Automatic annotation (TrEMBL):
<dbReference type="InterPro" id="IPR002893">
    <property type="entry name" value="Znf_MYND"/>
</dbReference>
<dbReference type="GO" id="GO:0008270">
    <property type="term" value="F:zinc ion binding"/>
</dbReference>
<dbReference type="Pfam" id="PF12796">
    <property type="entry name" value="Ank_2"/>
</dbReference>
<dbReference type="InterPro" id="IPR052452">
    <property type="entry name" value="Ankyrin-MYND_dom_contain_2"/>
</dbReference>
<dbReference type="Pfam" id="PF01753">
    <property type="entry name" value="zf-MYND"/>
</dbReference>
<keyword id="KW-0863">Zinc-finger</keyword>
<feature type="repeat" description="ANK">
    <location>
        <begin position="85"/>
        <end position="117"/>
    </location>
</feature>
<dbReference type="InterPro" id="IPR002110">
    <property type="entry name" value="Ankyrin_rpt"/>
</dbReference>
<keyword id="KW-0966">Cell projection</keyword>
<keyword id="KW-0479">Metal-binding</keyword>
<feature type="repeat" description="ANK">
    <location>
        <begin position="51"/>
        <end position="83"/>
    </location>
</feature>
<dbReference type="InterPro" id="IPR036770">
    <property type="entry name" value="Ankyrin_rpt-contain_sf"/>
</dbReference>
<dbReference type="GO" id="GO:0005929">
    <property type="term" value="C:cilium"/>
</dbReference>
<keyword id="KW-0040">ANK repeat</keyword>
<keyword id="KW-0862">Zinc</keyword>
<keyword id="KW-0969">Cilium</keyword>
<feature type="domain" description="MYND-type">
    <location>
        <begin position="333"/>
        <end position="370"/>
    </location>
</feature>
Length: 403
């Protein structure tokens, strides 16, 4: 500790000793030390270790978002690099599996298309090491300016397509990686301003969809479809809200929208398992995609019409988020498809949820199975305890549903 301090104090502007300490501070995740050194270093923070790896690249590789943010605030160049294999800071963030670091770098202008010496982008490297959430974060990223563009009146317009106050909520909505319709509905519920301006938001999403299709060599069919999909979901939820709101308190109605929407989508079909309504709702979305010449559309239709097809949701998720569907061994929220949810049904422990809201929304489906699990094989010796348990738990669930 003391020797480090001596180094810091003794540092001159180009002193390799001081640079070494900042790399050490990163290596040990020592944020205080890192801030200290950075505070004393008045020049550009774009300096390199003996392998040509910049300070920012080290912080990204360590997955330390605080350090990355501090460096970006100090003007670190996200795309500079002298790394012998042409890795960028984004490559390192991707290898570290830190979606947050990647997001910061992308926000600061990191180029997702930059390739390393073996021709791999950051997202491909993340896929290579199995960091799927990071892959999706990078692939779903769009700069805020793409959306802010529509706050400027175009051509003869006196009013722009998008008011300023919708830029950030819409940007956040678009960057979401989980495209499960119920998750999107919950996101909209948490961002009521977007839902209050659903017509503007969905219009801008359709314009963005069109733009992605007309970029020449830069055309991004997947992103185009994602915009179309998000626009479709917003319109649907907005329609439900319009129908649901003859009178009454606004707050209550907003609450209901997600419930009505999820009841429609999560209702099991005749076999008790497959989500037929969800499937037809999403197939309609694919059918309404206006760019029918593109490969992405053809691939989706081919999957949907194949023998024994996967669900429309998994096809759409594969299209937007890469090869992964909701198929891995990772646990998912039974309501909204969020990965690694924090909670389990306290009664049967066989299904998982993000939180009480997700559990509440799924209860109309789960209650049968849950009761079955809970009332299944009870051995004679402890049957009385079992009954008490079940009663306690069901009152707990009742409270949960009520609350
Ligand atoms: Zn959930
Ligand atoms: Zn249960």
């Amino acid at each position: 500790m003391s020797s480090k301090k001596v180094n810091m104090q003794a540092k001159s502007e180009e002193s390799p000793a001081s640079e070494k300490t900042i790399f050490e501070a990163i290596a040990t995740n020592d944020l205080d030390e890192f801030k200290n050194i950075l505070g004393q270093h008045k020049d550009s923070v774009d300096f390199f270790d003996e392998n040509g790896m910049s300070v920012l690249q080290h912080a990204a590789y360590k997955g330390n978002k605080d350090m990355v943010q501090l460096l970006l605030d100090r003007g670190a160049d996200v795309n500079s690099g002298k790394h012998e294999y042409n890795y960028t800071a984004l490559h390192f963030g991707a290898l570290a599996g830190s979606s947050e670091v990647c997001k910061l770098l992308l926000d600061a202008g990191a180029k997702p298309t930059a390739t390393n010496s073996v021709g791999r982008t950051a997202s491909q490297m993340a896929a290579f090491v199995g960091n799927h959430h990071t892959v999706a974060t990078i692939n779903n990223f769009i700069p805020r300016s793409e959306i802010a563009f529509y706050t400027i009146p175009q051509g003869q317009q006196t009013e722009p397509y998008l008011p300023f106050f919708l830029v950030d909520p819409l940007h956040k909505f678009v960057l979401g990686v989980n495209i499960h319709p119920v998750r999107l509905a919950l996101n909209l519920q948490n961002s009521p301003i977007l839902l209050d301006n659903a017509d503007k938001a969905s219009k801008v999403l359709e314009l963005l969809s069109k733009k992605e299709m007309t970029r020449g060599t830069e055309t991004n069919e997947v992103m185009s479809f994602k915009y179309h999909y998000l626009s479709y979901i917003i319109r649907e939820i907005h329609n439900i809200r319009d129908k649901q709101r003859p009178s009454g308190k606004k707050e209550e109605k907003k609450y209901d929208v997600v419930e009505v929407f999820s009841k429609k989508l999560l209702k099991p079909g005749k076999d008790g398992v497959s989500l037929d309504l969800m499937d037809s709702f999403l197939k309609d979305c694919v059918r309404e995609f206006p760019y029918r010449e593109c490969t992405t559309f053809h691939q989706m239709v081919a999957s949907l019409t194949s023998k024994d097809p996967p669900s429309a949701l998994s096809i759409i998720n594969c299209t937007i988020n890469g090869q992964r569907g909701f198929v891995d061994a990772i646990p998912y929220c039974s309501t909204c498809g969020e990965e690694k949810p924090a909670k389990k049904c306290s009664k049967c422990r066989s299904v998982q949820y993000c939180d009480r809201e997700c559990q509440r929304l799924h209860w109309f489906v789960h209650k049968k199975a849950c009761n079955r699990e809970a009332s299944a094989p009870v051995t004679t010796s402890n049957s009385s305890t079992r009954i008490i348990d079940t009663n306690e738990l069901s009152s707990e669930l009742q409270n949960l549903i009520a609350g």
